[in-house]
Amino acid sequence: MASIELRDVRKSYGAVDVIKGVDLDIKHGEFCVFVGPSGCGKSTLLRMISGLEDITGGEIAIGGDVVNTVPAADRGLAMVFQSYALYPHMTVRQNLSFGLENINTPKAEIAEKITSVAKMLQIDMLLDRRPKDLSGGQRQRVAIGRAVVREPKVFLFDEPLSNLDAELRVDMRGEIASLHRRLGNTMIYVTHDQVEAMTMADKIAVLKLGEVEQFGAPLELYNTPRNLFVAGFIGSPKMNFLAGRIEDGDRGELVLPSGERVLIPEDGYDQRPGQEVTLGIRPTEMQPAADGPVSIEVKSVEQLGGESYIYGTTRDGTPLTVHSPGQTRVRIGETIALGVPPGQIHLFDTQSGLSLLGS
Ligand SMILES: Nc1ncnc2c1ncn2[C@@H]1O[C@H](COP(=O)(O)OP(=O)(O)O)[C@@H](O)[C@H]1O
Ligand SMILES: [Mg+2]
User: Fold this and answer.
1) 140 lines ligand 1 (CB under 6 A)
2) Which atom of ligand 1 is nearest to the CA of 46?
3) Is 40's C-beta closer than 6 angstroms to any atom of ligand 1?
4) For the domain bounded by 237-349, which CATH number is listed?
5) Across the strands, what pairs with 17?
6) Are 268 and 317 in contact, with CB atoms under 8 Å apart?
7) Residues 6 or more apart from 209 whose CB is under 8 A from it?
8) Global confidence as pTM
9) Which of 147, 179, 188, 239 is deepest in the core (most CB within 10 A)?
């Protein structure tokens, strides 16, 4: 069993705290994605789990055993990086066998493993080529194959698809997900791309400045973001935010700086009269409606045929996005009213950024 537990894991470079106390429980067989903006500490955290980086504080356990002082080579992990450094002078077969030869695996066993892994990753017809004669996607598959033949307990991926073009990225995303289903190993996958996180993960850890903002299943994060950061980071197009103030003496109405009033849910939220709050609503949930409470001036319209985007600003200058299925008649320069269905509203305390969703 290869569960992974992090307890108050910390990393400092001199006086700079890069990882500020991370607690995570990753279950055996789970596909866990670390997502967050560039520089938030994803690679550092992954490298500490792998043993390539020592930790400043806390505890890391793999399969229940604390591995703080266990060298990388003895942790039973395999890592795939963005720069999939294959050996250029070796064939694909040699690239795959190299690690196994190093640990004196019998020749017949190596051959058997390579055949089966090459078939699984559809690189069996490429075994005698050199990396320069492969496409980017094929190279990345060889890099993954090199990790798979070692039969690690845990796979660690650090932005393995960032160098590929968009279409190939989508294909490889599917292949890694199906590899996970077939092997059933614990996997940790680092990316700055929330779409990759949403489509591949069993569990997502959203990181910001070295701290976990929220850890949960993709739809849990999408439906009940804990704070403004997660709300704005997960989901595409991004959630719209409207800052306002709860009406004095009334928990059920939000007053915007424009004076417009929006009905908000009273049940399930902990807002108090007079509180400064930020209303979040996804662009898919805010549609043009003649009697809608918020109006925008339309600044641009994107018609994609099967769907359309309307971009505008409210009377107080807040940018808003509307995403509609199908085609729209809305034109640039028009002022349109938008519906704000109370059931689709997220509420956050403006100052702390925390969700007001009651527990
Ligand atoms: N060896 C190092 N010395 C000092 N700072 C570092 C070092 N490695 C990483 N950092 C800093 O740690 C932070 C997190 O880096 P990293 O884990 O690479 O982020 P991510 O992978 O999320 O983009 C960044 O601010 C980076 O500058
Ligand atoms: Mg990184």
Assistant:
1) no
2) 17
3) yes
4) 2.40.50.140
5) 12
6) no
7) 20, 40, 41
8) 0.92
9) 188
Question: 240 CA distance to ligand 2 centroid (A)?
Answer: 28
Token pair 């590929």 is at which residue? Answer: 164
What's the CA-to-centroid distance between 17 and ligand 2, angstroms? Answer: 16
Token pair 């018609």 in the structure block, residue: 303
Phi, psi dihedral angles at 220 (to 5 degrees):
-65, -45
pLDDT of 229-249, one tens digit each? 999 999 999 999 999 999 988
Q: Is 194 in contact with 35 (CB distance < 8 Å)?
A: yes
* pLDDT per residue as tens digits for the range 203-220: 999 999 999 999 999 999
CATH code linked to domain 4-226: 3.40.50.300
